[in-house]
Amino acid sequence: MSRVDALRHRVSVFLHPRRYARELEAERRFHLDLEAMQQRHVGAAEDEAEFTARRQFGNVTYYGEETRHMTSLRISDALMQDLRYAVRTLRKSPGFTLAAVFTLALGIGATTAVFSMVNALLLRPLPVAQPDRLFNINEQRVGALVRWMGQEKIPYGRFLSYREGTRQVFSGLAAQNATSFSLRAGSEPATTVSGALVSANYFDVLGVRPMLGRFFSRDDEPAVVLSHRLWQTRFAGDRNVIGQTIYLNSRPYAVAGVAPAGFSGTTALMTLAVWVPVKSAPLSGDMGVSGDMGSWVAPFGRLRPGVTPAYATAVVDAVAKRVPPDEPQSRVRGARLEPMTSVPASEHRGMVRFLGMVLAAAALVLLIASANIAGMLLARAVARRREMAVRLAVGAGRGRLIWQLLTESAVLFLLGGVGGFLLALWLARLLAAWVPELTGGAVLDVTPDLRVLGFALVLTAATGILFGLAPALRASRAELVPALKDGAGRGSRSARGRSIFVVAQLALSVVLLVATGLFVRTLRSALAVDPGVDPDGVVVASVDLAPNGYDEARGHAFYSSLIEHVSALPGVESAGLARYVLLSGNVETSDIEPAEVGPKGRTRVNAVFDVVSPGYFRALSSPLVAGRVLSAADDERGTPVVVVNQTLARRLWPDENPLGKHVRTLDHDWEVVGVLRDGRYESIDEQPQPFMVFELGQRSFMAPLLGPTYWLSMTLYVRTRIPAAQVIQQIRGQVRALDPNVAVAYAEPLTDVIDRALFPQRVAARLIGIFGFVGLLLAAIGIYGVLAYHVAQRTREFGIRLALGARGGDVVRSVMRRGALLIVMGIAVGLLAAAAVTRLVSGLLYGISPLDPVTFVVAPLVLIVVALVACWIPARRATRVDPVSALRAE
After folding, report:
1. What are the pLDDT digits (tens) for 25-42?
2. CB atoms closer than 10 angstroms to residue 306
3. Helix, strand, coil: what percent of the chain each, to 5?
4. CA 281 to CA 248: how far, in whole Å?
5. What are the Cα distances from residue 676, in Å, to 591, 805, 852?
6. Centroid of chain to Cα 458
7. Regarding beta strands 744-749 and 538-544, do their DSSP bridges make them parallel or antiparallel, or are they unpaired?
8. Which of 3, 75, 265, 795 is most buried by its number of CB atoms within 10 A?
């Protein structure tokens, strides 16, 4: 035995006597097994030769079922031994363990919480049978168009044509139209609930079975299906509710069934409470359905077995081109199929980009946290160099050490993953609480499922292996003689490794801070957008008379009385009516063109339009650029008139005065009598688009465009000097006084509507701001840790320098220079990364450039200030080194 081997043996016996005894026992058992195996294979010379060649401990190929079982037992025993050792090691350093677990929990929790929202909105399939076979029909329509919550609809008559013409490809074609109802049951007061008018086969096509009772048998059945949530909350889960009569919009409906738990419709963020057959409500017009939007429905179907989406699209497109549109102002170019998901197709891409951006921000926090943990593990690796050297000296292989250190990292990241998952449960509910209630108390189900749990496990394992490998490799590369001689040593390689991780942390923090700045400035830009009206002090209230049996004449009288009574309320300055609520996402469009033929012919423009009463302009303080607003004198006895906005005037009559010009739509020419300043009509971040306003008094001229039901569903705009809640209560009282069966669908300040329109910008600014703050804090902790370790390593040097006459400022500058170098490197890399990343989110920004100079200057300055403070603390500590103690140690 050589001297080195003898030294290793003595050190091993002295330091680990019990482990040495266990190794001797394992070696003895190994040789006994070896002799038994040799006896079994004594007749096979070639097997004996191969067996002899693999005799070294830990590298033996066993033959036979019992020996493979012995190998698996040894592997499992070794794994359990490593796990127990890792737990004991981490338990000996509670401060390090708690700090690491908390840091990891922040990163993993934030990322998992955001992923739970992604799962709820984009990944989780519809709660129906075979959702991949369900497809929406979307027409390529020009002219009259109804967009509701980003989803385009078609007239009910065309839905019937599609149903007949597509039987060969669809096993069933159904229709739905979300709306709201005034529900009254028993002696309880009426409340507004969300619901849908649906075809009788709605549930059959979806493949949904009733939890209680049955579904509809025909389109005109006066029956209602309750959601499970409404059945539990309003009817206390009474199973005898089947057959009872409830009143929706003052009409009796028999409760036919209760939908299963978990089913509340097919659109995310919209919780439906009731479903009613589409032809069971009061009939209006020639479409055979009720209400303002009842004539327009969203069709969807289930493909027959064996039918491909491509073939079905061709059939649907042929039907769309063959059947002429019901409206003279519309043209249909074709139709296409789109998979039915919980997010409408028109909103799907924007939702993916938005959630992807938030998920990326959370992932950056996780990377910063993981880099911080990797730096901490590198520091521990230096502190454990003597331990690693001793283990190498007694014969442990480097691979064995790497495996042991990776096991410790895995346990650490596993604990962080458990904490992160628990934190994600709370964070996900908090995120869901920020989701606006779009209708009837929308609820976003963020309950973690197996997909979320799997994501958390994969995320934990990936980060544990990725960020635990470098410290393990570094710790297993200990030099025996220096490590056994002076313990920890200088650890220059570890210092360089930690510096690399800190630079990465700083760079990622720059990206997060730049993103935060961009979205904060986007929100400010959106808030500064001129909506074209003055929303302060304005209350909006929606009223629908059609379900209560009103005809057009009675509806006209009702609304005239309502405006008169509301205008007389104390504190009310003005009141007016309009079809739609600004910035609610609900609009109608129509193609128009100038009546006069210009030098370049007629220019056709698709414009958003609204129909209003005279008080509308005063209630909203609509700024007029030229001409006049509509008045009560503009009635059916006069000339059809219209007010346009600046964008429409520029499109139709560039460089000309639009006043006195005529636009042509439907069967009439409309004289332009006024020009409004451009505003926002469908969404707050839309580009300027054409807009025109018609007078309600000329409703007969608009019948071909709107149908005879347009007067029955209106929105009341009220400008007031008193609190909004008080005005809303008074409006509801005036409506009840005119007709107790009519309910106000909803009422709220116009500023709340605008705030809801800014929801994506607000959420992005808030979430990414939180992530940016956490990333900044973690980066500051990282640079502090590096410099604190740097000061600890150079304690003797600083003490000697101070003993020889160096001033404290010199020591501080030395430490600060090192920190400044790391800061400069991190910011430089981060700015380059931010310049590339922010271009990917340019579609979510508004009013600023992805390379906004203010943001790219302020974000690094914030990081510099925080990082310098983190550098100054250990630098100041370096000046407090006792020179006498340093010289005595030297």
Report:
1. 555 565 555 555 445 444
2. 6
3. 55, 15, 30
4. 9
5. 19, 78, 32
6. 21
7. antiparallel
8. 265
